[in-house]
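Encode chain A's predicted structure.
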Amino acid sequence: MDTPQQTPKWRIVAASACGTSHLKNNQLCQDAHHWEILPDNILVAAVADGAGSASQGKIGAMIAVETAVENISLQGPTPRKIQDDTQLYQLLQEAVVAAKKAVENEASACNHQPHDLATTLIVMVATPEVVAVAQIGDGVAVAKDLNDNLRSLTMPENGEYINETTFLTSPNALDTVQFNLWREEIANVAVLTDGLQMLALNLVLGEPHKPFFSPLFNFAMKAENPTVAKEQLSKFLGSERITQRTDDDLTLIIGVFGTMGIGNNLLQT
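Encoded structure for chain A:
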């Protein structure tokens, strides 16, 4: 009997986990993430890290990611539009601007200052042929092609000190946006907040750490049950293997494009 051919598609596993420092202080996770798969295999994903010093940072992060993804979705991007670099950059820029306005409007409506909802933001649009990213603040976006080339599309934006960065609500935020685009046969993408960047990046070389990403991409490709996969990723992010190296909140969106793998490759924790 012939085995039915599977149609390649995006498979996403995403989770956020509260950092150990926040748990000790009975604080909520300040990170947020959101993603959608649009027609024609167009993936839109966003992550945000609410500032620890911002009283409403979690709210700012949630509004930022949901607004950015919704803004792109409502514009109805098509493969033809995404083939044009200028239109693709404009799509991302408008999403960032919309997110900034939405956060500032929420601050005004709740009698807060914009900096009370301070948050970073990374927005990604990916298809099997291209990946494009806009970023304000720290965190990182990466992609891997079918030839196993793994590339950092953005780098953490820090100030004089490692824990300083620009936030979406900063007056000069829109002047600091990192934009990048890679046209290649895309196999994998990932977006993460700064809690993971020391594990995921070689900051000296400005390159992704392949031993960190390869097992995660393999896991996402082979995961059969989305709910179970998310639980396993959450457990991995909260494992001692990770928390002994970082006490910050952790968010990771993993995207793999292809047919379903066989079996469920558990992450070792």
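The mean pLDDT is 90.
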